[in-house]
Amino acid sequence: MSSSRSSTLETAPAPLEARPRRGINLFWRTFFFLALLLFGSIVAWLQTFRTLETEPRAIQNAQQLATLVNLSRTALRYSDAIARVSLIKTLAEEEHVRITPRQPTDKFEPYVSDEFDERIAAELTSRLGNGTVVAGKVNGLQGLWIGFSIDGDSYWLLTDTSRLGPSRTSTWAIWLVMAAVLSLTGAAVIARLINQPLKQLSFAASRMRDGDFEASWLDEQVATSEIREVNIGFNRMAAQLSKIEQDRVVMLAGISHDLRTPLARLRLETEMSVADPDAREHMANDIAQLDAIIDKFLDYARPEPAHLEPISLNDLIDASMYAVADYPDMTVSVSIPEGTKVLADQVDLSRVIANLLENSRRYGKKPGSNMALVDISARVSDAWVLIKVRDHGSGVPPGVLSRLTNPFFRGDSARTEATGAGLGLAIAEKTVLRMGGLFSLSNTSSGGLAAHIKLRRG
């Protein structure tokens, strides 16, 4: 076999490049829905309350101001000049009410800033007469100005806007912020209560998928009856699967032991008792094939999780190349950047590469040729390493492509030449998935079958 380093690295196809769709998780989705619902309810409630409260409050404030103006006007009307000065001074000092003559040259701006102020101004005009002027600024001085007349003389009454109560805008803003904070906190608590059991169930399912049945045990004493029933059912299922897995391991170990012992005796007796060299060689090959099939079954049934560590992909491929160096019917070309490392189990990844090379040697020969040309390439993409093993055979029909990784399935062209158990590609896919990677098969544009492996960068 000859091995060469090619400088051109083929790009892995779309199946391994495609990123899974990123969706919002259940906690944040529940939180956002609850927060939106609560916030909308708060805004609607505040708006309704504000609408129902504006009218009575405006009438009450306008009534108080009208009473103040009427009392001041009556007091000034029936007091002499000296008493009037004293009265104005007393009102300014004790009631914070300033009364000044109104000049024709005074410049004022209407006291209108929102619906509430418009309602107060309209109510004051209705109670004090059409000649009443309600201003928010007179000659540049801010305040609540009310213009009225006493026996033909015009006056301004200036009072503090605090008589109308605290600032409505700030009050609504404070209440809205407080209600929003409380609502968001409540939404977070509710979302967590809903999400936490599902998160625990998801973690337990992932651990059970990896064969760790002890870590998948859920709390059966939770307060919520529905969650408690789900946890109890899941634990019973995990216990049954654990027992089935243990029975399967024991059964496979027994099959391996019970079959290999007579196979070893058969091999020894064949080599010693069969005189015909050709018959002896064929019988020995059949026994070796049976032994290899047993190994395939055990490899596929292995329940142990992979032990991941950074390993050199260059060294691993070189070791795999050394193992197939004596094959006269296969040529392998390798193109891997120096220093490429992957996070994988070295033994498992070596088994995957060996299975792919063996599959290419058996079924990837060029049409009309007895030589299998295999290319092994790799490239680094962000946090991943993309490995490609391709042959230059005739490929497989598109309808068969997705079924090649099914256990015991073989394509039509492989069935007539099959000497294995139909588990090579199934073992490769299962092993790569166990190492946290992705595995896919595709036909190449120039002919042949390509296996794509995506592993995390070491």
Protein model, in words:
This protein is of the alpha+beta class and 458 residues long. The chain folds into three domains: 26-170, Beta-Lactamase; 211-303; 305-456, Heat Shock Protein 90, CATH 3.30.565. Helices cover 54% and strands 17% of the residues. It is built from twelve helices and 13 strands. The chain has helices spanning 14-17, 26-77, 81-94, 115-128, 168-209, 225-273, 277-301, 313-323, 346-363, 398-401, 412-415, 424-434; strands at residues 3-5, 97-101, 108-110, 133-138, 141-150, 153-159, 309-312, 330-335, 341-344, 372-381, 384-391, 438-443, 449-456. The chain is rod-shaped and about 150 Å long. GO terms for molecular function: ATP binding; phosphorelay sensor kinase activity. One of its GO terms (cellular component) is plasma membrane.
Summary tags:
alpha+beta, single chain, Beta-Lactamase, about 450 residues, six-stranded mixed sheet, five-stranded antiparallel sheet, 13 strands, Heat Shock Protein 90, 3 domains
Topology:
Blueprint (H helix, E strand, L loop, with lengths): L2 E3 L8 H4 L8 H52 L3 H14 L2 E5 L6 E3 L4 H14 L4 E6 L2 E10 L2 E7 L8 H42 L15 H49 L3 H25 L7 E4 H11 L6 E6 L5 E4 L1 H18 L8 E10 L2 E8 L6 H4 L10 H4 L8 H11 L3 E6 L5 E8 L2
Parallel strand pairs: 1-8, 8-10
Antiparallel strand pairs: 2-6, 3-4, 4-5, 5-6, 7-9, 10-11, 11-13, 12-13
Helix pairs in contact: 2-4, 2-5, 6-7, 8-9, 9-12
